[in-house]
Amino acid sequence: MSKQINVALIGNPNTGKTSVFNALTGLNQKVGNYPGITVEKKEGVCKLPRGVKAHIIDLPGTYSLNASSLDENVVIELLLNKTDKDFPDIAVVVSDVENLKRNLLLFTQIKDLEIPTLLVINMADRMHYKGISLDIDYLEKHLKTKIALISTRKKLGIEDLKNLISHYKDLPVTPCLHASEIDKAYFDSLRKAFPNQLLYKLWLVITQDVNFGKTDRNEIEAVANFKTKSKTDLKRLQQKETIKRYQFINNVLKQGQTIDASQAKDLRTKLDRVLTHKVWGYLIFFVILLTIFQAIYDWSSVPMDFIDTAFASLSEWAKSQLPNGAFTNLLAEGIIPGLGGIVIFIPQIAFLFLFISVLEESGYMSRVVFLMDRVMRRFGLSGKSVVPLISGTACAIPAIMATRNIESWKERLITILVTPFTTCSARLPVYLIIISLVIPDGRFFGLGYQALTLMLLYLIGFGAAVFSAYLLNKILKIKSRTFFVVEMPNYKLPLLKNVALTVVEKTKSFVYGAGKIILAISIILWFLASYGPGDNFNNAENIIKTEYASQNITDDELQQKIASHKLEHSFIGLTGRSIEPAIRPLGYDWKIGIAIVSSFAAREVFVGTLATIYSVGSDDEATIKNRMAAEVNPILGGPLFTFASGISLLLFYAFAMQCMSTLAIVKRETNSWKWPLLQLGIMSSFAYIIALIAFQILK
Amino acid sequence: MQYTLAHLKRGEQAIITDVSSNHIPLKLLEMGCLPGNVVELVQLAPFQDPMYLNINGSHLAIRKETAIHILIEKVVHE
């Protein structure tokens, strides 16, 4: 068997580290989580020359080994745990040619850990735009490493990089500067106390919280307690260390790098002048948002109609081709419509992720952070809250994880608490189907009414988030220091490969994650809807036949009556009836009630549930939408989904906390049940009240 | 008069002379905000806050409340 080596990709954010990872692994990658925490773990496999296989880990981006977030902690924990199964045989530090100075800080720190380290200088194709030239030999000599000059955009140097990785054993493992000179006496005493440990490792353990694997925990714990210096002194030392490292880097680059500023063509300045402008900046941001929502609507309507019809005919086909029986019914009435209810939203979710990833990749998102910080601060949020709030339109779970780079705990907590108000993609299924039922077609200044309604719902979501943030900011008494530092990366044309991989990966995990829940719930629902207790259910046929014996009705109508009588007296019907009094004032019948209850786990289950309930016992080939349109209000007569009940439902879903996964993630990120339970209680009761008011006014 | 980063106007350059270490996060130093480095104010958001800076080739944005703890010496262009 060929040997497999562990390769860790490390680098500052915005250096194109993920592009390098994609270039090396292509489609041979998977995304998971680090055990016990919610930090994303990306790993992949790459074939190197001479039959060597490399297991590559793309570590979270970090500016240094002084971790200030959970994500950054992952990096030092891996580099310090020699016994970890992923401990790297080689560390590949990815840097960006335009920010070499800053990128080298992290590089010199990793060199101090005496791991074979390779320096990748990415975006080499931009060197001549910026008038940069490098003396690679000089740099290799003084940085004590090998350098791979590559461009992931132009696909240059990737083979060289693979070759260098395969020769990892030839890389020097000596540090490139003596950081311990910042306080000789202190580091000498440290060395004496723990002679078997690497000095820099000791230093990192003392200055921050590192979790260790079982094997080296005992010894290390003693180190962490080696406190001969106060916190302020340690911080001062860290600053001295940083200054010392920069001195070294400046000296090396003075010789190894020349920048001819007159050669530099600055696209950044021109774009920034417009995109961060006091007026144009905001206007452009608004237009971009508007375009995104219109596009999501327009582009996905064709594939969605196609999927809807396809599932309806698949269900019909299963019924006609498979032998009659409980299993066929379960398949045709439970599983297929349930799955159809989720597959149909793939186009929209994919487009949403596409736009978000383009905004992030291009560097535009940081400009939005810059523009919005002042406005957001008025509501107790940070400019960085904009990223969670925007990516919350895809899903609240990654959005809540994206709050980790917000420096102030109060701003971060408020962001976590209000993010679930933003319209996540799981709300889309509910919104879209109801909008198509109750909002008329037609255009207003070229924008469809339906698209405008959707846009309005997004705005309501943001509004609710911002308004509740304002209240929380007034109520919560948390003192925390606020720091705000955000990098403004260079503008880049997004790489197609990166965007495509993100879209595929995120859509896949959304569909699988939601798909599992929906599949399970639709099977349970089908059982509950197909069986019932007592005479009323089991003798439905006779009861209806007797009731209508004297009347002249067609066979079809009779079958319909029997089916709905059965459904009403099935387990699910009985449950629905019992909760009906609570939801009738909102304009819903018991079937919607069931859908609301079952979608407590996840909002998108709503449509799947209605699809399952409505298809039980019905024979005709119909799409979910047509079935919903045909529903009759049991009391008032007329269609069940009217403007009033539709709006009431839309508002209910806009505000209600119908997502167990979000509650779980909030619990994990805030480390307490207090906040998720508070969220659940407040959001749900607020949703109920607003929906009630809306229906009572509009009906 | 002792100038801080908050006094800088758009397009102006200065040299950082001192950073008040208790008020400045380590992360900012790591991004190049160190004494001796050149800083340029690239852009201001409305209400002069936050500030978009080019420090030593690193582009970043910080709030005014942080900027007042970074002392500078203005570079005068003749």
From TrEMBL, chain A:
Topology within the bilayer: Multi-pass membrane protein
Cellular localization per UniProt: Cell inner membrane; Cell membrane
Annotated positions binding GTP: 11-18, 36-40, 58-61, 122-125
GO molecular function: ferrous iron transmembrane transporter activity; GTP binding; metal ion binding
Chain sites annotated for binding Mg(2+) 2: 23, 25-26
Coiled coil (residue ranges): none
Membrane spanning residue stretches: 279-297, 339-359, 413-439, 451-472, 510-529, 635-656, 677-698
Annotated positions binding Mg(2+) 1: 22
GO cellular component, one term: plasma membrane
Domain FeoB-type G residue range list: 4-171
UniProt-listed InterPro entries: Fe2_transport_prot-B, Fe2_transport_prot_B_C, FeoB_GTPase, G_FEOB_dom, Gate_dom, GTP-bd, P-loop_NTPase, Small_GTP-bd
Functional note: Probable transporter of a GTP-driven Fe(2+) uptake system.
Protein name per the record: Ferrous iron transport protein B
Gene designation: feoB
Automatic annotation (TrEMBL), chain B:
Domain Ferrous iron transporter FeoA-like: residue ranges: 3-74
InterPro entries registered for this protein in UniProt: Fe-transptr_FeoA-like, FeoA, FeoA_core_dom, Transcriptional_repressor_C
Family annotation (Pfam families): FeoA
SUPFAM superfamilies: C-terminal domain of transcriptional repressors (SSF50037)
Gene3D superfamilies reported in the protein's UniProt record: 2.30.30.90
GO molecular-function term, one example from the UniProt record: transition metal ion binding
Keyword entries, A-Z: Iron
PANTHER family given in the database record: FE(2+) TRANSPORT PROTEIN A (PTHR42954)
Protein name (database record): Ferrous iron transport protein A
UniProt source species: Snuella sedimenti
